[in-house]
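STRUCTURE REQUEST FORM
Protein name: DnaD domain protein
Source organism: Candidatus Enterococcus courvalinii
Requested output: structure tokens
Priority: standard
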Amino acid sequence: MSEHKSYYATIPANVRYDKSLTANAKLLYGEITALCNEKGFCWASNDYFASLYDVNKVTISRWISDLIRCGYVSREMIYKEGSNEIVNRYLRINQYPINKNVNHPINKNAKDNNTSFNNTFNTTTNTSSGHGDILKPVLAFWENNGFGMLAPITVEHLDHWVDDFIKIGASEENIAPLLTHALEIAVSSGHCNYRYVNGILKNFEKKRYLTVEQVKAEDKKQKTTNSGKIENYEYSPEYLNLDF
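Status: completed
Returned output:
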């Protein structure tokens, strides 16, 4: 790790234009892609990145956490057998959406990666999640609408939201439409990341919205009350206390 790698760095559009990420976090993403090009994963430590960019390890940790939170990077910890001591930390780049207007052939490695992702997706929704059947259409919407590859932690968070809506009285048949509607709002607002979706869902929970119909009815009232001057103000980053 004493020499700089010569592999190309890649920063796709959804990372470059994600306003929830700092410029340096995006640069770190590119560095991780360069290291992943050698073995398929990044084994570099926070010490290495801190030295490379002349910052402290806490800063590096924050950048990596932001990339994980947004679903662009996944992290795997390898522990010493029988203890909580971390032996290795591996970072992997999550697959980002392919531009459907560009017709590129898929090479063997890309196909293998997609197969691996699908296996992970099925395993996550069927075993790790307690509400796989409810979440299936939600996760499919996420995957196909510009949010990036699903990270296991995102599935886990959405699974917790199913429990939270059940606790406030929502029926199981209405929860998937509610979660999907939050994703639709995120897409229309140009903030395709979990942080924004989480803010919307917190607002739903606070207002005790149990169906999409309730949400839309309240949205219509707000637009009428504000004479159309402030459209969907309840979903603005400022209202949701999000700093983009």
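Reviewer notes: The chain has two domains: 13-93, 108-235. The longest strand covers residues 86-93.
Form closed.
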